[in-house]
UniProtKB/TrEMBL annotation:
This is Class I and II aminotransferase. The lineage of its organism: Bacteria, Pseudomonadati, Pseudomonadota, Gammaproteobacteria, Enterobacterales. One of its GO terms (molecular function) is valine-pyruvate transaminase activity. Keywords: Aminotransferase, Pyridoxal phosphate, Transferase. GO terms for cellular component: cytosol. Transmembrane segments: none annotated. Its cofactor is pyridoxal 5'-phosphate. Signal peptide: none annotated.
Amino acid sequence: MFRKLSPSFRRYLPEDRCLIHKPEGAIFLWLWFKDLPITTEQLYQRLKARGVLMVPGHNFFPGLDKPWPHTHQCMRMNYVPEPEKIEAGVKILAEEIERAWAESH
């Protein structure tokens, strides 16, 4: 399924903005926004305001002994909805990532 989505995904989010952990047969992707100037919790709030729901990564790393920046750089994205909905959501995601970068300069 992801192979079908990959070209449209990369149209909006090149690898310098978003890395994708290799899917292992699940119904979601782990997206890594390395060096994103906002946390994925902040990104989540921006996306939610625009009708796109993804889960910030820190929710999946409870009880760590030490802070780990990676927990605030990743999000989990479900890719079961129709490809058109996913593409629309990825486009909004890309817009919000670019907005975060623009605001940081």
